[in-house]
Amino acid sequence: MPLKAAIRATSPAMPGLDGSTTMGLITFEDQEGVCWRVWKVETPSAQAHLMDAGFRAGWLVFEREDERERRRLADVPEDWESLPPHRLDALRQIAVSANTPRTGSTHQAPVTPRRDAGG
Q1: Of 25, 79, 96, 116, which cross-links 8 as Cys (Cβ 3.0–4.6 Å)?
Q2: In-domain check, residue 105
Q3: For residue 82, is it within any domain?
C-alpha cells in the first residue's frame, strides 16, 4: 500500500508562547494505514538548559490521530517538512516513545476528615 501525506499548515502563522511562529502540521499514513500527525517543537532558549541535551535544539512529535501513541525524535532533519511519507514513517519508527496516559478521569485518594486538635 502506498503511503500518503497531506500538509496542514497553520494559516495565518500563529505566535507561540515564546513569540515564535508555529510550524505547519503534516499528516501521513504508515504502511498499516494508521494516520499520524507530525510537527516540530522548538525549545525556548530560556528553558533549553532544563531539557535533556538531545532535545535542546527542538524535536519532532509523531502522534497517532487517535492519540493512542506519541513519539519524539531529537535529531530533526532540516528538510523534514518536505520529506515523502515513507521517509516520515522511517523517522517515526526510530523516534522514542513519549506516551502519556490520556484518560478522562484521574484516580483520587479517598478523603479522610481531619480530627480536631482538641480531641
Answers
A1: 25
A2: no
A3: yes
Residue 113 inside a domain? The answer is no
Domain containing 60 equals: 5-97
Q: For the chain, what is the domain count?
A: 1
| Per-residue tens of pLDDT for the chain, all 119 residues | 555 555 443 333 444 455 544 557 999 999 999 999 999 998 888 888 888 888 888 999 999 999 999 999 999 999 999 999 999 999 999 999 997 655 544 444 555 565 665 55
Element (H, E) at 90: helix 85-94
Residue 7: Cβ within 10 Å count? 11
- Global pTM exceeds 0.90: no
Closest CA to 58 of 74, 37, 69, 72: 74
